[in-house]
From TrEMBL:
This is Uncharacterized protein.
């Protein structure tokens, strides 16, 4: 018997592992590997039909590719791809949100994270707030309930940033720490969503 997953009943271990794989591939610009990880992440995280999962993972890939160049990325294009992704999520999940607004929240945390990577003036708290904005909006969740999930994801980002500065070596133990933090983040999110 296949266990159904969805936006409120995902497996935090699977989603956290796939997101770690996606972040690793992103920073190494290994786009085929990123797409494989995105398929797994979208499938486990949202439980959409296979054709929607593939389309959604493609939009996530394209959004990340147009976002990746620094400092000359394309935030409008990234938001457009993420809007298409969130249209699929909304159509498949029963969650009620505006896909354009969800995409704006998504790319906003990307922007704040990018600034946090390059400026000590951008705080972890600002990044945490951006994630809380996204989670509370998409899942219609209480802001305080999703705070721990956001905090653990920021911790994972800091570990990822250290891994990038150290040279992006797949054997670096920082990846295992990042993976644990992302799994903890998704476990906290699932608890916050009451599932």
């Amino acid at each position: 018997m296949r266990i159904r997953t969805g936006p409120l009943s995902f497996d935090p271990v699977v989603v956290g592992n796939r997101e770690t794989d996606a972040w690793t591939a992103y920073y190494r610009h290994e786009w085929r590997e990123f797409l494989v990880a995105a398929v797994g992440m979208v499938s486990a995280g949202f439980g959409m039909a296979p054709h929607r999962t593939l389309s959604g993972a493609w939009y996530v890939l394209r959004a990340n590719q147009v976002w990746a160049p620094y400092p000359d990325n394309q935030p409008d294009a990234a938001r457009a791809y993420m809007r298409r992704f969130y249209e699929l999520v909304a159509a498949s999940s029963g969650l009620l949100f505006d896909p354009a607004r969800a995409a704006a929240f998504e790319v906003e945390w990307w922007r704040i994270h990018r600034e946090h990577q390059h400026s000590p003036d951008v705080t972890k708290e600002q990044l945490e707030t951006a994630l809380i904005d996204l989670y509370s909006y998409v899942y219609d969740a209480d802001r305080d309930a999703v705070r721990r999930a956001a905090r653990k994801r920021v911790e994972a980002m800091d570990l990822s940033d250290r891994w990038v500065r150290a040279g992006c070596d797949r054997a670096d133990p920082l990846l295992a720490e990042e993976r644990r933090a992302l799994v903890a983040s998704y476990a906290a999110l699932r608890v916050a969503l009451g599932s």
